């Protein structure tokens, strides 16, 4: 994952680059959100026992809450996609350049990992509020007769009850999870570097779920899409336990009497004591199933927009 882009990417204006990344991020959310809802249901301590497997959870949600139940809370991630994409793209490139002697130098995998991890920490400033609203919506099990509750209702409740600070509940766990951007970028670049075909310098970037935003013209689509899928899986496997912790922290209220999920550390300790080490991988299956198509769709959408404007 070299920081020096190929000639095609250098001709693309920052505005087009930003637009392509935004559209790609929205496409990724639309494709992967149902699996994310299933994952959150598995991770939420109050309702996890309701579902036996990924497919059981999926069909149970559809049967009880219809298709809209799988997309409940999607407005917040869609609203956060544009600024998140801008921060990820710019911060990753800046952090990578800061480690190089000149712009033509080829970064090592360690430098790529550090730049990606730093990007994840910075992006958590945006992803934490969006994830909090999303988790609140996805954790609510509703029936057709239940009164509707919009994202705006959730935002108002959090603001009135906890103020601005309430929107950043779980930011430590979110930042630890988003360090997985480092593993994503490293896996993507390593796959292309060791793919049995030479490739030109390139500058891919990634949105909150870890999606590619640029590609190498000299590589085949097979290589690029394979690298995207591997990268998405690698990023989640490395940091998934912190995603479980984040969900448990954000789906509860710190002030609740006897709440064991007050902080990142108390959540880790309480979860391990009650359910063992396996709890930190609950919901991993739908997440990995989601990671491959989401990354491929994001990459394909980004390239389509870039080619359209080129």
Query: What overall geometry do the principal axes of the alpha carbons give?
Result: globular
Strand content: under 5%
Biggest sheet details: none
Overall helicity: 55-70%
Give the CATH superfamily.
Mitochondrial carrier domain
The CATH C-level class name: Mainly Alpha
Kindly describe this structure.
With 310 residues, the chain is an all-alpha fold. It has one domain: Mitochondrial carrier domain (Mitochondrial carrier fold, Alpha/alpha barrel), CATH 1.50.40. Helix content is 67%, strand content 0%. Helix 2 (14-43) packs across helix 4. It is globular.
Give short descriptive properties of this protein.
310 residues, mainly alpha, Mitochondrial carrier fold, 11 helices
In short:
It is built from 11 helices and no strands.
Show the helix and strand layout.
Blueprint: H1 7-10, H2 14-43, H3 54-70, H4 75-98, H5 109-138, H6 151-162, H7 171-178, H8 180-193, H9 221-250, H10 264-275, H11 284-309
Helix pairs in contact: 2-3, 2-4, 2-11, 4-5, 5-7, 5-8, 7-9, 8-9, 9-10, 9-11
């Amino acid at each position: 994952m070299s920081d020096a882009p190929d000639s095609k990417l250098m001709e693309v204006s920052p505005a087009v680059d930003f637009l392509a990344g935004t559209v790609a991020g929205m496409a990724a959310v639309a494709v992967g959100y149902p699996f994310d809802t299933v994952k959150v249901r598995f991770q939420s301590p109050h309702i996890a026992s309701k579902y036996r497997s990924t497919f059981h959870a999926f069909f149970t949600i559809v049967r009880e809450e219809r298709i809209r139940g799988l997309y409940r809370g999607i407005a917040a991630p869609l609203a956060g996609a544009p600024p998140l994409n801008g921060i990820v793209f710019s911060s990753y490139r800046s952090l990578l350049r800061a480690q190089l002697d000149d712009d033509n130098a080829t970064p090592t995998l360690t430098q790529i990992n550090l730049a990606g991890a730093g990007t994840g920490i910075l992006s958590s400033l945006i992803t934490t509020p969006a994830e909090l609203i999303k988790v609140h919506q996805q954790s609510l099990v509703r029936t057709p007769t239940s009164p509707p509750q919009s994202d705006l209702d959730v935002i108002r409740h959090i603001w009135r009850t906890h103020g601005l600070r309430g929107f950043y509940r779980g930011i430590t766990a979110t930042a630890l999870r988003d360090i997985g951007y480092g593993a994503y970028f490293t896996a993507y670049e390593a796959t292309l570097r060791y793919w049995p075909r030479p490739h030109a310098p390139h500058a891919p970037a990634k949105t909150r779920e870890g999606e590619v935003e640029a590609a190498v013209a000299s590589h085949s689509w097979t290589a690029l899409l394979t690298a995207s899928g591997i990268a998405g899986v690698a990023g989640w496997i490395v940091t998934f336990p912190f995603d479980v912790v984040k969900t448990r922290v954000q789906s509860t209220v710190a002030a609740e009497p006897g709440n064991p999920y007050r902080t990142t550390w108390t959540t880790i300790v309480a979860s391990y004591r009650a359910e063992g080490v396996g709890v930190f991988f609950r919901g991993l299956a739908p997440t990995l199933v989601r990671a491959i198509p989401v990354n491929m769709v994001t990459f394909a959408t980004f390239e389509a927009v870039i080619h359209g404007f080129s």
